[in-house]
Design a protein that fits this description.
This protein is an alpha+beta fold. It is built from 7 helices and 5 strands. Strands 2-3-1-4-5 form a 5-stranded antiparallel beta sheet. Helix 1 packs across helix 3 and helix 6 crosses helix 7.
Length: 172
């Protein structure tokens, strides 16, 4: 491969890393063609971009970025596929669903501005809440006081006396 081609590929990889907020380094060494094709289809359905990248090119692309990705460099051995996504826990859920006998295996991940090294971090990555899940939790917390007032109004027969009685009997 010519040097100009390599620099173009490095720039494209760096641009992809900047475009997506999270990426996973996955070991796909022992996967056959059918399993790899199925993984690609599942990634496409989940809005995950899957790329098999040469380790040296990925290393140089990560070095060219402003952020320090040095904790991931030791994981760049063997056949590495990179899963790019905008939701931190989607690839972890996909890997957990697809993983049979550790294939595909998680090498490392960069999610929510943190580094996760090793396959033992998969459960922690699955547990990460997405932005929409956190917003839903906050909304549920904000709605709970309003729901208790509404239920008090409905249980008291919509009278002021009933509301006061219901609220007075409620345990603190």
């Amino acid at each position: 491969m010519r040097k100009e081609d390599k620099s173009t590929i490095i720039e494209q990889i760096a641009a992809t890393v900047k475009e997506y907020g999270h990426f996973y380094l996955v070991d796909v060494t022992a996967m056959n063609a059918a399993a790899t094709s199925a993984l690609r289809r599942d990634c496409f359905k989940s809005d995950i971009k899957l790329m098999v990248i040469k380790n040296t090119l990925l290393h140089k692309a990560l070095e060219s970025l402003e952020e320090d990705f040095s904790p991931l460099y030791d994981s760049l051995k063997g056949t590495t596929a990179v899963m790019f996504c905008n939701t931190a826990n989607l690839p972890a859920k996909l890997i957990k669903d697809k993983a049979k006998d550790g294939i595909p295996g998680l090498k490392a991940a960069y999610a929510e501005e943190s580094f996760y090294i090793g396959a033992d971090q998969l459960d922690a990555l699955v547990a990460i809440k997405s932005k929409n899940e956190v917003i839903a939790d906050v909304i549920a917390l904000l709605q709970s006081p309003a729901k208790s007032v509404i239920s008090a109004l409905q249980s008291g027969g919509n009278t002021l006396h009933g509301v006061l009685k219901t609220l007075g009997e409620r345990p603190e």
